[in-house]
Amino acid sequence: MKQKQVLSRYLREMGLALAVYAVLLVGSITFGRPLPEGMLRTVALMAPMLGFIGMIWAIARHLGGIDEYQRKFVLETWAIAAAVTAAATFSYGFLETAGYPKISMFSVWMLMGASWAVVGLARAVIKR
Known about the structure:
This protein is mostly helical. The protein has five helices and no strands. α1 runs antiparallel to α2 (39-46).
């Protein structure tokens, strides 16, 4: 029963953090981009990070609430996904020196998320 409560709390906290992120992202794009350069524009464009910090907080609380086996599985999956992401971004860095186009840093997070999903699914299938 405790694990269901932990999962329920995590989903609520992560959902709230994602909602805050989405609202602040729309606001920063709508209102922050047109502002003249300066501190106000910088703060407005960085505002979505408050939601991102909330996501980190939700993940940290979730890790603290799950049992040791689940924690080990999740952390190993994240470590492998981070290594895959590091290898891919490092490799692309070499390709950029060969003339390939520069890619936004936002793509690193998308790659990390995709790596996390693929590695997690693969490990779950292999575990069976």
